[in-house]
Amino acid sequence: MFDAQSAFPQARMTALTAIFTRRSVRAFSSEPLTDQQVECLLAAGMAAPSAGNAQPWEFILLRDKQLLEKIPAINPYAAFAPQAPLGILICGNTTREKYAGFWIEDTSAATQNILLAAHALGLGACWTGIYPMQERVQGFRQLVGAPEYVLPMAFVSVGYPRKAVQTSVDRYKSDRVHHNVWGQQ
Amino acid sequence: MFDAQSAFPQARMTALTAIFTRRSVRAFSSEPLTDQQVECLLAAGMAAPSAGNAQPWEFILLRDKQLLEKIPAINPYAAFAPQAPLGILICGNTTREKYAGFWIEDTSAATQNILLAAHALGLGACWTGIYPMQERVQGFRQLVGAPEYVLPMAFVSVGYPRKAVQTSVDRYKSDRVHHNVWGQQ
């Protein structure tokens, strides 16, 4: 078992701070990540809940620069991908599902864990969306040679932030909260 | 702005510990939650990333026991819902989307934040799936009187755990990790 806290005794950021100060990071230094950092991110993803505990996910680590340089053509919103030392392609594997169709939610929970773990390790990360945009799904599937039953859901760039990360913003919106009945605020 | 760490100075659980020790909790004491705890959970959800930062989510707080007692008939896997002091129905609002179809991923990231925040506050929570099962979507929509453009994604029960929470389990599976190319391990 990967013991994250023992591996990173200095990573003392609280859970609440991580949740509230995590921001998308799109500019990275060239400093590579250690294998232990990468393992921590993957283990964090796999610690997510999933429907029926099916864990219907696959993680494709992209570190090959030639592959990373092809990503902006697949998703222009991931133009920064080649500058990051690591990309993680998070996919659903529909053959691993216990309850059909929940793989999107399961892989999204895993992705959020990865973003928070990266932040807790002093790294920066950015989630770029793939599914349900079919051209992006196919582009990433071709890029890594995945079979049809593997559905790329998101691509996350990870690295050391090149500049100071902005602090938290207030996203709280009281009109999104309802009491027992829709619209009762 | 809701300042979670100032509101809960004692909640010092690290992010890594929260990620790796969070477990589904399905048995709750009757002790109610404070308004501040509930606000923290909602703010955590709203701190999640979303496609185009559209934040296409709605949170319906269920504390009415008569409503909570109707939930097991909608989803038998949420049989424990009436015993929890709070349920949060997390929905996508398709009229708030910037990029169509990403609301599932956005609301899932928000839900994972809520689970982690609950754990960090010493509470327990359990994610029960709704979307894409149409009978559950309709059942929850009717329960709270939400319009067609609001899609219930998940229902989360929250409360104080009635018994000690199991510690972390090892979900790391090295065969889910691929290097640059599908199947390259």
Model description:
Two copies of one chain form a homodimer. Chain A is an alpha+beta fold. The first copy, chain A, has a single domain (24-163), classed as NADH Oxidase (3-Layer(aba) Sandwich), CATH 3.40.109.10. Chain A contains seven helices and five strands. Chain A has helices at 4-7, 15-21, 35-46, 65-68, 71-74, 103-120, 134-144, and strands at residues 57-62, 86-93, 124-129, 150-159, 177-179. Chain A has a four-stranded antiparallel sheet with strand order 1-2-4-3, sandwiched between helices. In chain A, helix 2 packs across helix 6 (103-120) and helix 3 packs antiparallel against helix 6 (103-120).
Chart the SSEs and their pairings.
The structure is a homodimer of 185-residue chains.
Chain A: H1 4-7, H2 15-21, H3 35-46, E1 57-62, H4 65-68, H5 71-74, E2 86-93, H6 103-120, E3 124-129, H7 134-144, E4 150-159, E5 177-179
Antiparallel strand pairs in A: 1-2, 2-4, 3-4
Helix pairs in contact in A: 2-6, 3-6
Order of helix and strand elements from N to C terminus of chain A: HHHEHHEHEHEE
| First and last CA, distance of chain A | 45 Å
- Number of separate structural domains of chain A: 1
Mean pLDDT of chain A: 96
Beta percentage of chain A is 15-25%
Q: In percent, how helical is the residue content of chain A? A: 25-40%
Q: Strands of the biggest beta sheet of chain A: in what spatial order?
A: 1-2-4-3
- The CATH topology of chain A is NADH Oxidase
Radius of gyration of chain A: 17 Å
Outline type of chain A: globular
Structural class category of chain A: alpha+beta
CATH class bucket of chain A: Alpha Beta
Going by CATH, the homologous superfamily of chain A would be NADH Oxidase
